[in-house]
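fyi for ur records
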Amino acid sequence: MTMKSGHAAILLLALLWAISAQATELSLAEALKRTLVQSPDLQLYPYQQRINDAAAISAGMRPNPELQLELADVLGTGDSRTAKNAELTLSLSQLIELGDKRQKRLDLTKWQSKLTEQQYQLDKVDALAATMRSFLLVLHQQALLKWTEQKIATEQQALTAVKKRAKAGNVTDADITRLELKVLQSRMEQKSLSAEKWVNLRLLASHWAQTPDFDAVSGDLSLLPTLPQLADVLTLLQQAPQLQWWLTQNRLLDSQLQLAKALGQADLTLGAGIRRNQQTKDTAFVLQVSMPLALENPNQGAILSSAALAEQAKLQQQQNMQQLQLQTERSYLQLTQLSEQIGDYQKAVIPLSQQVLDQMLAGYQQGVFDMTDLLAAQQDILLAKRQVIDLHYALHLQLLELERLTGLPMVVNSPEALSQQSGGSSLPPKQELSQ
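which gave:
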């Protein structure tokens, strides 16, 4: 290798290293897309649908005709020792299903397939909600890392002010050491959050069974939508995937009951053939009709069992609806409370805490306040800002839960929407988890 080619190779390696070292952010739209395509749980449903399709083919098949050959009056005694006096009958019979059994089997398989689709919708919403939950967790940690940076900057500012006073001989070495210790502790906290963030990045990527090819996610938890009215939420609840699943389940059990009743009805067998008498050399047509004598319904137990299952499912549907409505109302109440708390912190607590900190810092430099007062004011505003971050995170989790319960796009923002700037009271675009 010449010096010139070696130099080019070094430059190429440096360029590749620089590209790989660049931070890559993952959007929620991409995370949800990967989950839909590569989620291990969701990948099983195409196979289940193929099983349902095969069951529908079997259910639609009619009974095959039966060919029967009968040879009588042979291998006996006397004139029946040989086939000279034998009687040969060739007949074809067909089972005729009564009670519309074939259509009822098809109806049952149709609702089984529909129930599989409804279960897929439920699992899809849960899978996407789980991905969104992990995504929000990483967003929360990123916000905490920024908060830690601000915390270090604030503590460093206080340390600088203390060192200025130390030059005048008004500060003890213990005060300086105390502040340096707080800065050190904050840096350790920042390091711990960074390590925890990496773990949760791997957790996020596990939703599509891969390792992370990103080191951050895009979004801003501080961008909040306007809450809908509770009446509107309860109206949307009527279309919740859970309720749709129960409706389909009820129809499936009703079809199962109708099939059980149909199976209790006896079927008819029709047959026709030709009979040949070797002794007389005569040929005649043969007609057959047979039907079991249904003195008792042989499927009575299955009918009673299917009826009980159908009634039980209807009761469970009512209970599920009540529970779902209660969970929705509770989630909405928590959303309202979180929204009010965020407003209180942003409008009152943080501005006042900042005002107190500024006054304490100015007073400390003039010797009016001591180190304890300054650190207390500093801690108050830092905790207030940390509390707002936690409230934002909790509110988005409740928004996600509300959408998961209803299964409809209402108020949950995607990370792309969260990363966009919205002016005034306008809301960012909404992300539908059920897509």
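Residues 101-167 form the longest helix (67 residues). thats all i got for now
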